[in-house]
Amino acid sequence: MTQTDPSGTVTETGTWSSTDKEISAKSSDGKIEVIPYILAGNKLSLTVQVEEGGIKLPIILEFTKQ
User: Fold this and answer.
1) How remote is the C-alpha of 45 from its chain's centroid?
2) Closest CA to 25 of 40, 6, 3
3) Which end of the chain is less packed: N or C, by CB atoms within 10 Å?
4) Contact predicate 34/19, CB 8 Å
5) Which residues does 63 contact at the CB level (< 8 Å), separation at least 6?
6) How many CB atoms sit inside 10 A of residue 5's CB?
7) How far apart are the C-alpha atoms of 41 and 60, rounded to whole Å?
8) CA distance 25 to 40
9) pLDDT tens, position by position, 7-24
10) What digits encode the pLDDT tens for the residues 20-62?
11) Nearest-angstrom CA–CA distance, 53 and 41
């Protein structure tokens, strides 16, 4: 995974697997993150948690296949 934001670019490696409703991502340091998703037609919606100032906020990412 490569993430780019105003503070810079971060690259992580690891493995992932999925079920009908969740993606499990395991980073190279052993941390596991479970990400719920919905795939409907050509739209993928992921629900992730972002921590800001000690508060976890749910963020929904939507992707549309072109």
Assistant:
1) 10
2) 3
3) C
4) no
5) 43, 44, 45, 46
6) 7
7) 17
8) 21
9) 899 888 999 999 999 999
10) 999 999 988 899 989 999 999 999 999 988 888 899 999 999 9
11) 36
Cβ distance 34 to 24 under 8 Å?
Answer: yes
Question: In the structure encoding, which two tokens stand for residue 61, read together?
Answer: 């990412």
Token pair belonging to 32:
């596991």
Please give the model's pTM, rounded to 2 decimal places.
0.66
Task: Quote the distance between the C-alpha of residue 22 and its chain's center.
Answer: 10
Cα within 13 Å of Cα(28), Cβ side:
4
Q: How far is CA 54 from CA 1, 24, 29, 57, 59, in A?
A: 24, 23, 22, 10, 15
In single-letter form, the type of residue at position 40 comes to A
